[in-house]
Amino acid sequence: MNINLIMLLLVFAAFGLVIWAQFRVKGSFKRWSKVQASSGMTGKDVARRILDDNGLTDVPVEPVQGKLTDHYDPVSRTVRLSEPVYYSDSIAAVSVAAHECGHAVQHKEAYGALVLRHRMFPVANFASGIAPFLLIGGLLLQARGLFGLGILLYAAAVAFQVVTLPVEFNASSRAKTIMVQKGFIRNVEERGVSKVLNAAALTYVASTLYALLELLRFVLLFLSSEE
């Protein structure tokens, strides 16, 4: 079987994994949103406690519209939680809130992977925006140099995704540890927390795998154009 065809099939398989991972994270969040945390604390309460206990009293916690739109903004140093997380006292809500606060603590401690990710962001943001046009243009115009430049920029965007993985895994690890130590959840509730956070982590893994396979496919196309 032609190597390019094999790569194309692998890319399609990885894309399927991305879709499945997205459904899984939504399903896990929906399931554990129906289970109340024993502490009775809401996502907002958990976030505020974690931030305050880590000396981040100046970092606000704000509600934002949408579902699974939760994030930590390193520029304004703000934890933003989707309304279903901010106001809810479910296992899913407190898990997500603790995870986002994990990023705030990483920022305070200058966690290596997070610092690198922040430095890479401007280049990765530019690269991800222009790379598709260069790749498509290079293929249509049969311009090998243009296509090669597109590959380099796409590689920068992929590198950003790779660096994101340890950042996300570390934030989840911090979240689970803090939640048990502070009594936000009981030991028997750890299973639910793991289900929610592991499902979220899988989306990053799947997306990165897809991007890496796409990059490899482009490289093989570039090399085959020499022949």
From TrEMBL:
Signal peptide: none annotated. The keyword Metal-binding does not apply. It holds the Pfam family Zn_peptidase_2. InterPro entries: Zn_peptidase_2 (IPR007395). The chain crosses the membrane at residues 6-23, 123-141, 147-171, 192-213. Keywords: Membrane, Transmembrane, Transmembrane helix. This is Zn-dependent protease.
